[in-house]
Please model this.
Amino acid sequence: MAGASEDDSTSRLWAWLGGIASVVAILGWFGVSNAQEMKELLAESSPPSSSSAPHESSGTTYTPDDPEASDADSSGPDSDDDFGGSSDEPDSETSSPIPDPTEDSFKAVSVGDCLAVYDTGLQGTSIDWSADVPPDPVSCDSKGAGLVQVTSTADSTCPSGAGKASWAYTSAVSGETTKLCVTRIYHRYYCVLGKQVGDDTRLGSMTAVDCTARQIPAAYNRIIHITGVYQAPPGAGPRNCVQGAYDQRKYLAWLVDDGKTLLCATIFQGS
Model:
């Protein structure tokens, strides 16, 4: 039994030595000369673990020639749609012009209209109209202290003379000037202002005043009371104003309306 045990041990020893020889032969075939190189070889051949694998993006990378890239750029954050960029379409709402009510009032006047306005006389020989804007037209047969009729709304220069004047307005908004040419309509028994210098009395032909006024503008010193308005005969003068054989009043007379009308008056009150 002892001999059999020794033979078995010897067989195992030779088997173990044969295994070592086989391993050394294999290592030599791989070019490994020592155990350290064998360890490094085994480490390099091991598969990498999933935890150490680098992350790779699954997104799409666009190139400049890629048509999809162009589409993506057009809808990106730099587009006008995202930032409220200007549109090529014009604004549907247009701003309304600034209104000028005074200009509108002047432009609303028509040739032939009669307006209840007059010169207050406060500016002397320069007309100071009794209204800032043309009032609504009235009947040309209206009886009143001051009444004018519009003869033109288009002339740049209006006719001058006794009983004729112009009324103009220049708009600060449009820069346009609207001019009304007017002629005075006189009625008997109403009063106008006058300026007496010596034997001559100048008529404020566009003025009107209360016949019983206690004070009058400084540029005038007489209140003229109209006694008659007539069609002027040839050579018309104060003698044509006398109303009867017993009329002893001292008359003043003026030709107005381009000499077509004789205006007769007396001095109602003076200072």
The helical segments are 2-30, 35-44, 67-74, 101-107.
